[in-house]
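In response to reviewer comment 3 from the previous cycle, which asked for concrete evidence that the modeling workflow produces usable outputs, we include below a single protein chain processed end to end. The sequence was submitted unchanged, and the resulting structure tokens are shown without manual editing.
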Amino acid sequence: MAISRAQMLKELLPGLNALFGLEYEKYEDEHTLLYETESSERSFEEEVKLSGFEAAPVKDEGSAISYDAAQEAFTARYNHETIAMGFAITEEAMEDNLYDSLSARYTKALARAMSYTKQVKAVNPLNNGFTNSFQSGDGVNLFTASGDGVTGGDGHPLVSGGKNDNRPSTAADLNETSLENAIITIAGLTDERGLLIAAQPRRLVVPPALMFTANRLLETTQRVATADNDINAIRNMGAIPDGYSVNHYLTDTNAFFVITDIPNGLKMFERTPLETSMDGDFDTGNVRYKARERYSFGVSDPLGIYGSPGSS
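The workflow returned the following structure tokens.
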């Protein structure tokens, strides 16, 4: 349906002082602080996690060496979505509007809508990763811990038979203790055969409701909310080297996340960059504007992120 003069009666008459509602600022592309971006030339992408070898055993004198076998662990699949929207304006509406270039104003609104959609889709794994709504390639919830009591949880299974945790077994709000426990858990992550992988946290990601807490935890020189004159160990050790960032599209005001340095963690594939186009209809005189792009967000290695849903 085209935007006609019926939807903009006030803009056809003298005496209008201002048009407003489309001038709002927008948050920048916050997904770039979460995802590694790669281009794609296929309808979907798959990434396979490989299993290495277990710890080397002792070889007795005169005996043969032991041989181990590597294998594939699981596959993460990225299905690209097509995101598109447009609008049309009648020839008469453009001719009779007294105050503004309708196409310029609504083209900006279209760009804002497309950007908003991308940011919402980007945090879908984080917003839904504590439930069955978003699972990683190994078939369990993105955020899971042994004994967390959550359906689809109980840790990320390993080829060795062990498990990795990337959330606390008991949900915890963001504070000094819960952040230290997250750092300790990340340090104990292993590969598929149980070998330590020297994982390190990189960035704390929080919703707006926790930005002041995050700032105090990472920026103060002394411990937060204590009468002791102890140093802030997290800050002093540089345990979160990239600091914190606020993501305004997170829906849980108590949840917090820690991005690790594990490669091939959160990943965005860009199949088709944002394209805009316009054309006119000869018969009606309507002008149509369109924006379109194709991309996918997902997680290859779930150890690339740690999350806590908060206890509240």
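The CA atoms of residues 255 and 309 lie 4 Å apart. We consider this sufficient to address the reviewer's concern, and the full set will be provided in the supplementary archive.
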